[in-house]
Amino acid sequence: MAMTMAEKILAKASGNKESQAGEIIMANIDVAMTHDLTGPLSVESFEKIGVDKVWDPDKIVIVFDHQVPADSIDAANNHMIMRKFVEEQGIKNFYDVREGVCHQVLPEKGHVVPGEVVVGTDSHTCTHGALGAFATGIGSTDMAMVFATGKLWFKVPETIKFDITGKLQDNVFAKDVVLNIIGNIGADGATYKACEFGGETTRNMSISDRMVLCNMAIEMGGKTGLVEPDQKTINYLKGRSTKSYEIIKTDNHAPSLETIHINVNELEPQIACPHNVDNVKPVSEVEGTPIDQVFLGSCTNGRLSDLRTAAKIIKGKEVSKNIRMLVIPASREVYTKAMDEGLLRTFVDSGALVCNPCCGPCLGGHIGLVGPGEVSLSTSNRNFKGRQGSPDAEVYLSSAAVAAASAIKGKITDPRVI
């Protein structure tokens, strides 16, 4: 029977020969991730179950990234709870405050490979589908059951395949592609579906760019984001992971597969306007909007390629005196490579503030919050009311190129003309 990637991976994880969209299956979990913000509730729920030991400490990954270093007594207590759990359970895959954002750290450290089922207590766990894994966010109480049993039930999703073709213009990137898709199909356009990204344009993208696409699958309601593994995937995993894996691909005539064709030849930079991610407009329609803060970072666009793009635009120029710019690399690996390449010096010389690898203002619970009436331009993935601070503030979303150009001008700016 013809099947999609999502169906094949879940069939394998459940021990079934075939799994059809709509079926309820019990899947064995390959990787279970939690972090400092959602982890304590998972631990509390796990302890209520009455099981002494987790099912497999080697398959659990814990990352501190949301509030690091601790910015409140509550955050410090959360860190203490998780450190105690790590020690009691013998969890070796523990990344304390120094490593960075979970969705960057897991691929870097080789925890994710094609064909696996990856769950995390963070909605943007779908990022890891860029490596050909079925990766999805779950609740903290569901994670407690995974800790105890190593299993979780799923309804097998249908799949929307975005067949992306065409050549992107200079200073137009994967972020613009996915924002455009979300703007067209809406925040609920792919509810509980696997969002698979394919086509010539996707195949030409780096793993980092594919991660951008998959990261934002949840913003159109998707259960997961997926890209078929290829030689780029294999090359990325070399030197990172020692796990064995299976390359799984979609059968194009699978019954549950819907294909949407997209050509990006004429695509211009895209902006998600307040207060919804699907409120997307081309930059030409919002150009000139005054801003107070630029945030370059997050699990969406805090990678080395993003820092390179922004630094190329900013080099030799100054951040507008009317704004502040925060640059937050997604991981320690990204931070050190950016330091070695001189990118961080470029940002500091321009007047930007470079911070430690973490989630930063993305979640509205840590550094760099915006106040009432202020406007943030962010390379992150959500712009809901109150997302980055005050509910009376506004958040626009963009690529790293738009963020850099706008930081110089102090207003939303098309990077193609700067």
From TrEMBL:
Query: EC no.?
Result: 4.2.1.33
Cross-referenced InterPro entries, in alphabetical order? Acnase/IPM_dHydase_lsu_aba_1/3, Acoase/IPM_deHydtase_lsu_aba, Aconitase_4Fe-4S_BS, Aconitase_4Fe-4S_dom, HAcnase/IPMdehydase_lsu_prok, Homoacnase/IPMdehydase_lsu, IPM_dehydratase_rel_enz, IPMI_cat
**Superkingdom, taxonomy of origin:** Archaea
Q: What keywords is this UniProt entry annotated with?
A: 4Fe-4S, Amino-acid biosynthesis, Branched-chain amino acid biosynthesis, Iron, Iron-sulfur, Leucine biosynthesis, Lyase, Metal-binding
Sites binding [4Fe-4S] cluster sit at 299, 359, 362
Stretches that traverse the bilayer: none
What is the required cofactor set for this protein? [4Fe-4S] cluster
The chemistry this enzyme catalyses reads: (2R,3S)-3-isopropylmalate = (2S)-2-isopropylmalate
Swiss-Prot/TrEMBL GO biological process terms: L-leucine biosynthetic process
Q: How is the cofactor bound?
A: Binds 1 [4Fe-4S] cluster per subunit.
Show where the Aconitase/3-isopropylmalate dehydratase large subunit alpha/beta/alpha domain sits.
8-285
Specify one Pfam family.
Aconitase
Question: How the protein assembles, per its UniProt entry?
Answer: Heterodimer of LeuC and LeuD.
Q: What does this protein do?
A: Catalyzes the isomerization between 2-isopropylmalate and 3-isopropylmalate, via the formation of 2-isopropylmaleate.
- Name of the molecule in the record: 3-isopropylmalate dehydratase large subunit
Organism of provenance: Methanobacterium spitsbergense
